[in-house]
UniProtKB/TrEMBL annotation:
Name of this chain's protein: IAP promoted placental gene
Alphabetized UniProt keyword annotations: Kelch repeat, Repeat
Entry-linked Pfam families: BACK, Kelch_1
Species this protein is from: Jaculus jaculus
Domain of life: Eukaryota
InterPro entries: BACK (IPR011705), Gal_Oxase/kelch_b-propeller (IPR011043), IPP_BACK (IPR047067), Kelch-typ_b-propeller (IPR015915), Kelch_1 (IPR006652), SKP1/BTB/POZ_sf (IPR011333)
SUPFAM superfamilies: Galactose oxidase, central domain, POZ domain
SMART domains given in the database record: BACK (SM00875), Kelch (SM00612)
Gene field: Ipp
Length: 360
């Protein structure tokens, strides 16, 4: 006679499996099946995977699929490994009302430990069928959650004021004077041997402030503020002025452009972009804005760089048809200003947005 209880079932099934006592293993599996509920099914699922008990694993997976809406609300769901989560999210058997519930479950898992899990964002969101998401609900989620996410995107939920400098000759990093205002999502530009730190945000507050670093005195000084607070903005230098483009302006993605003249210590609004954008790369700009040929794919969050007189645009986000949720791109386009044409070249190996790009 074998007495099975919640206190001994795990040890018993492991021992029975080692001794190849199949009947005892089966009894333990049946006992666990009878104990399963939305609060413990993840734990049983992980245990059955650990001991390679395929019958129990299949049973718990089916249970999770059927009771998904209850299961993903529990603490155990947040303890899933990345691979276990993806396996569940990919299932065609999930009992859901709409795809938005799967998206929320994925984001809930990521946000549980954003500092460690943000590197898995692309993998975890890959199973989401974004074309099936209600677009308005997704936009509300992005708008409502952006500032909550932004503060932790760059350094484990903390906006920083510290600044580091890399010496290309000695090949090492050193710290220099800190910014007066801790922030993330800021823009940075170099003009006249000075480093400008522009905009950004901290704790849901978006800044219009601009600071200037003098590498000779090794100090930051405050210069004129922008006309609009911005974070996630694009910044570049052209003809002796600093340009700040787009970014989040309050709860909206802005399309205004500001120009800073260091001689006059003044920001002025100089125009609008054709498309509102955030987190994009910037290269050279003309003093006069003219309409040129459109990209083959609408993008936001892309990388931009100029090489040998050609403009390379890679990755970013693009909306699906009928204004559905945006998807991450791996495509690359090249603009020739002489012929005013765009040409598609080979895709990147990995789709990406909000990345960095450099010319060597």
């Amino acid at each position: 006679i074998v007495n099975i209880s919640v206190n001994n079932v795990q040890e018993l099934i492991v021992a029975a499996d080692m001794l190849q006592l199949t009947d005892v293993v089966n009894l333990c599996c049946e006992f666990l099946k009878g104990q399963i509920d939305p609060l413990n099914c993840i734990g049983i699922f992980q245990f059955s995977e650990q001991i390679a008990c395929h019958d129990l694993l299949e049973f718990t997976e089916d249970y999770i699929h059927v009771h998904f809406l209850e299961v993903h609300s529990g603490e155990e769901f947040l303890a899933l490994t990345k691979d276990q989560l993806i396996k569940i999210l990919r299932s065609e058997e999930l009992s859901i009302e709409d795809e938005y519930q799967v998206f929320l479950a994925a984001m809930q898992w990521i946000l549980k430990d954003l500092g460690k899990r943000r590197k898995y964002v692309v993998e975890v969101l890959d199973p989401i069928r974004f074309p099936l998401l209600p677009s308005q609900r997704l936009l509300k989620y992005i708008e409502g959650g952006y500032t909550r996410l932004q503060g932790g995107r760059w350094s484990d939920s903390r906006a920083l004021s510290c600044v580091e400098r890399f010496d290309t000759f000695s090949q090492y990093w050193t710290t220099v004077s800190s910014l007066h205002q801790a922030r993330c999502g800021l823009g940075v530009a170099v003009l006249g041997g000075m480093v400008y730190a522009i905009g950004g945000e901290k704790d849901s507050m978006i800044f219009d402030c601009t600071e200037c670093y003098d590498p000779v005195t090794k100090q930051w000084t405050t210069v004129a503020s922008m006309n609009h607070p911005r974070c996630g903005l694009g910044v570049c230098v052209c003809y002796g002025a600093v340009y700040a483009l787009g970014g989040w302006v309050g709860a909206e993605i802005g399309n205004t452009i500001e120009r800073f003249d260091p001689d006059d210590n003044k920001w002025e609004i100089v125009g609008n972009m054709a498309v509102s954008r955030y987190y994009f790369g910037c290269c050279e700009m003309q003093e006069k804005w003219v309409e040129v040929a459109s990209m083959k794919v609408p993008r936001a969050g892309m990388c931009v760089v100029a090489v040998n007189g050609l403009l390379y645009v890679s990755g970013g986000r693009s909306s699906s048809h009928d204004f559905l949720a945006p998807g991450t791109l791996d495509s690359v386009e090249v603009y020739n200003p002489h012929t005013d044409t765009w040409t598609e070249i080979g895709n990147m190996i990995t789709s990406r947005c909000e990345g960095g790009i450099a010319v060597l």
